[in-house]
Design a protein that fits this description.
Blueprint (H helix, E strand, L loop, with lengths): L1 H19 L22 H10 L4 H10 L1 E5 L4 E3 L7 E7 L1 E7 L5 E8 L3 E3 L1 H6 L6 E4 L3 E7 H10 L3 H25 L6
Antiparallel strand pairs: 1-8, 2-7, 3-6, 3-8, 4-5, 4-7
Helix pairs in contact: 3-5, 5-6
Length: 191
């Protein structure tokens, strides 16, 4: 049992290291600050958006009105299974994980969200069905929550936002596929 637990711990450490040095195109050369600017928690999100499309001061002000900061301690949940997802969240600082629990208590990690990544469940929002996912902070974290309704308003009001959003989803799909292939290809000890 101890050897199995050490193997899980090693796999966890490798996964976290992968996330920290991720080479996915949407994060390469990112100017999203790793430390929060004093008094301006929205600045990292604005920097992230400006890397993807021109953002006028007027549109930046609109984003500021729609992004609600939330601080999470280690182990706190941003979303719990059984809730209808109403927000997407941009990780400003920290690290979160998305996971599901089986009826027998087994946990399946679906993805991680490091600084500069997004976390949400648009399927739950679209259908109104309760989500099966938990979003939990692995370490103290700060996120910016944007309602899906406000995100749609941003797509309509801000030129380039809809295209950047679609590209972000494509990047997420690629990162998820890499992670799945990485877990399938290794030995049990390596996973």
């Amino acid at each position: 049992l101890l050897a199995a637990m050490q193997g899980v711990s090693l796999a966890w450490d490798r996964t976290l290291a992968f996330l920290r040095r991720s080479s996915t195109p949407e994060l390469e050369g990112s100017s999203v600050p790793s430390r929060l600017p004093p008094g301006d928690v929205v600045a990292p999100l604005l920097a992230y958006l400006r890397e993807r499309y021109p953002l006028s001061n007027e549109h930046a002000a609109l984003v500021r009105t729609m992004a609600a900061p939330l601080t999470l301690g280690r182990g706190e949940c941003l979303q719990r299974a059984g809730e209808v997802a109403e927000h997407t969240s941009f990780v400003v600082k920290g690290l979160l994980r998305a996971y599901v629990l089986e009826e027998d208590g087994r946990e399946h990690i679906l993805r991680f969200a490091a600084e500069g990544w997004w976390l949400g469940d648009p399927e739950s929002t679209r259908t109104g069905a309760p989500t099966r996912m938990f979003f939990e902070a692995i370490e103290p974290s700060v996120v910016l929550r944007i309602s899906y309704r406000d995100n749609e308003r941003m797509m309509e009001a801000i030129p380039g936002h809809a295209i950047a959003y679609a590209r972000g989803i494509q990047g997420w799909a690629v990162a998820r596929e890499r992670w799945i292939l990485g877990t399938l290809g290794g030995s049990a000890e390596g996973r």
